[in-house]
Write a structure and sequence with these properties.
alpha+beta, Metallopeptidase family protein, about 110 residues
């Protein structure tokens, strides 16, 4: 396990988001991305909560933003180096963003994620 400074960890998350293709970033809608510095639910490195873009209908209005939460302690607990943390942050952020776009875990596995 490695301990990564909370500010540094947030920079890693921001870097992944900044690295998303511009077209993809523009399509993200009504979603808040946060870092939880305490341990999250057992076994989770990240969590998407909300209504994916592919499930939204014309009745989708006036709702709170979807949430993507990245769990710093959970990620740090499975990594040995800061480089491993950065790699896992990348994988976790992309995984949760994919859920926002309606891609489920089965399809992510098929795609190698």
């Amino acid at each position: 396990m490695i301990e990564v400074d909370p500010a540094r960890f947030e920079e890693m998350v921001a870097s992944v988001l900044d690295g998303l293709p511009e077209d993809l970033g523009r399509l993200m809608s009504n979603v808040a991305i946060t870092v939880e510095h305490r341990a999250g639910p057992p076994g989770l490195l990240g969590l998407y909560e909300g209504v994916s873009l592919t499930s939204r209908t014309t009745g989708y209005a006036g709702v709170l933003p979807d949430r993507i939460t990245i769990y710093r302690q959970a990620i740090c607990s499975i990594c040995q180096t800061e480089q491993e943390v950065a790699g896992q942050v990348h994988k976790t952020v992309i995984h949760e963003v994919a859920h926002h776009f309606g891609i489920d875990d089965r399809r992510l596995r098929e795609l190698g994620w």
